[in-house]
Specification:
Radius of gyration: 24 Å
Helix content: 25-40%
Oligomer: single chain
Shape: elongated
CATH architecture of the largest domain: 3-Layer(bba) Sandwich
Cofactor: FAD
CATH class of the largest domain: Alpha Beta
Pfam family, one: HI0933_like
Number of domains: 2
Protein name: NAD(P)/FAD-dependent oxidoreductase
InterPro entries: BaiN-like, BaiN-like_dom_sf, FAD/NAD-bd_sf, RsdA/BaiN/AoA(So)-like_dom, RsdA/BaiN/AoA(So)_Rossmann
CATH topology of the largest domain: FAD/NAD(P)-binding domain
CATH superfamily of the largest domain: FAD/NAD(P)-binding domain
Keywords: FAD, Flavoprotein
Length: about 400
């Protein structure tokens, strides 16, 4: 026996839940299918358990896509203020941490509970631990064969996410489904992910694991000022996660280790004030000491400041402000926060997220080739793309 709905949504993450709420509120009979044992697993783990649920500074420029214009329509019609209004209606306390990043005061569980309450109020049916065995189209709709039975609907929404964090249940199911229906899937790779070092580059830094500082990371014309953390395998921290989405193996990656001022002016000042102080001790006052000492062991020669000619100070300043970091790879999908690439936006409507190839088929969230920066941008894309599809179905 087949159960019939107006809309079937595959995937119970942020985008799928928002789509279900929006469609349900419009009177649609909605079934949401999630293969894991609960919905919203990535929501629960995000922001250190406090869910960085949006960002006040969202612009289309905060997203990577083969078509940078695609995200504009959805983002314009569902804004951070719209989601914050929902959070406030549910009495969830929140705060702005930094750079427009909005977090729950208490727990990300509150966001999931809010979304589930909204689904319940909109009469959305949710089935978890539900494995899909087959998806077919025909007779003006879609048939979904699952471990819990067969379901049918005129509209099918694919909100199954990307490949990042497979331990949370991530898989390539959405990409396979897209190809099944004739869609192109652009090459995928890990984004917002730590970088790894190898060989001498690894040897020089591995025992500095735990050293942290604020830097500017620079690659392929993009610059991010944020924290860097040296790890036992390479480098991490927001500055690295951000730039990783723009970096490919072999690309030139630079770090400004003194982003808060003019390095040369600082060195000249120290030379005048502390002529007898050695460079390693001067640098240890403005950089983490272990890193300063390592720099002087490998890349710089340490001697009393008065012994440096001005052109030598210029070279030292250039090293500190434009240090080449030779990464060998990334930590991969295991720790990546997002997946770059995905369903080609050229075959989707930017206003409704509906397929241009198959009527009634929609793709939303991370499965689409739209990837945000770190800091709540990917959640806002999930809310906005989910709302766009839910409003159109």
């Amino acid at each position: 026996m087949t159960e019939n709905f107006d809309v079937i949504i595959i995937g119970g993450g942020a985008a799928g839940l928002m789509c279900a709420i929006t469609a349900g509120q419009r009177g649609r009979r909605v079934l949401l299918i999630e293969h894991a044992n609960r919905v919203g697993k990535k929501i629960l783990m995000s922001g250190g358990g406090r869910c960085n649920f949006t960002n006040l500074g969202v612009t289309p420029g905060n997203y990577l896509s083969a078509n940078p214009h695609f995200c504009k329509s959805a983002l314009a019609r569902y804004k951070p203020a719209d989601f914050i209004a929902m959070v406030e209606r549910h009495g969830i306390a929140y705060h702005e941490k930094e750079l427009g990043q909005m977090f729950c005061d208490d727990s990300s569980k509150q966001i999931v509970s809010m979304l589930l309450d909204e689904c319940a109020a909109a009469n959305v049916r949710i089935e978890t631990s539900c494995t899909i065995t087959r998806v077919k189209s025909g007779d003006g709709g879609f048939r979904i064969e699952t471990a819990l039975g067969t379901f049918a609907a005129a509209a099918l929404v694919v909100a199954s996410g990307g490949l990042s964090i497979p331990s949370m249940g991530a898989s390539g199911f959405g990409y396979e489904l897209a190809r099944q229906f004739g869609h192109h899937v652009l090459p995928t790779r890990a984004g917002l992910v730590p970088l790894t070092l190898s060989g001498k580059h690894h040897e020089r830094l591995q025992d500095l694991s735990g050293v942290a500082l604020t830097v500017e990371s620079q690659c392929n014309g993009e610059t991010f000022r944020a924290g860097l953390l040296i790890t036992h395998r390479g480098v991490s921290g927001p500055a690295i996660l951000q730039i990783s989405s723009y970096w490919n193996p072999g690309d030139d990656l630079r770090l400004n280790l003194l982003p808060d001022g003019d390095a040369l002016a600082r060195l000249r000042e120290q030379q005048a004030e502390r002529p007898l102080a050695e460079l390693k001790n001067v640098l240890a006052d403005i950089l983490p000491r272990r890193l300063a000492l390592r720099f002087c062991e490998i890349w710089l020669t340490s001697k009393p400041m008065r012994q440096y000619r001005d052109n030598e100070l210029q070279q030292i300043a250039s090293q500190l402000e434009n240090w080449p970091l030779v990464a060998s790879g990334t930590e991969g999908y295991r720790t990546a926060e997002v997946t770059l690439g995905g369903v080609d936006t050229e075959e989707l409507s930017s206003s409704s997220m509906q397929s241009r190839l198959v009527a009634g088929l929609y793709f939303i969230g991370e499965v689409v080739d739209v990837t945000g920066h770190l800091g709540g941008y990917n959640f806002q894309w999930a809310w906005a793309s989910g709302h766009a599809a839910g409003s159109a179905i």
